[in-house]
Write a structure and sequence with these properties.
The chain is mainly α. The protein has a domain of about 40 residues. About 35% of the residues lie in helices and about 0% in strands. The chain contains one helix and no strands. The termini are far apart.
Length: about 100
């Protein structure tokens, strides 16, 4: 009687293992399909750019300038030029806002 119960239990467990292995194989195939789909974007497939989503986007452009040891802005010893305001301008142009654009508060 004990051998029959053990054999029946072993059969049930083997059936269960076979079903679980089939499920694992199906899930592995589905994961593979989803990873392939996720790896596609408008640059490596025929998908439109609007389907790329808001995630990564394209890489930011990098400057082509070479790095120097100089600080940004005007360098020491450089004579700057400033455009000074005249006391008597050549002409005055008055710009007015149309009445319909003035907002009452």
């Amino acid at each position: 009687m004990k051998d029959i119960d053990n054999n029946k239990l072993i059969e049930q467990l083997l059936e269960r293992i076979a079903k679980l292995e089939a499920i694992i194989a199906e899930q592995a195939e589905r994961i593979k399909q989803l990873e392939e789909k996720l790896a596609k974007n408008s640059k490596n497939s025929s998908k439109p750019p609007s389907s790329d989503g808001l995630g990564k986007g394209s890489p930011k452009p990098r400057s082509l300038r070479k790095k120097t040891n100089k600080k940004s802005g005007g360098q020491k010893g450089h004579k700057g030029n400033t455009l000074l305001q005249k006391s008597q301008p050549d002409s005055i142009v008055k710009h007015s806002i149309p009445q319909f654009l003035v907002l009452d508060k």
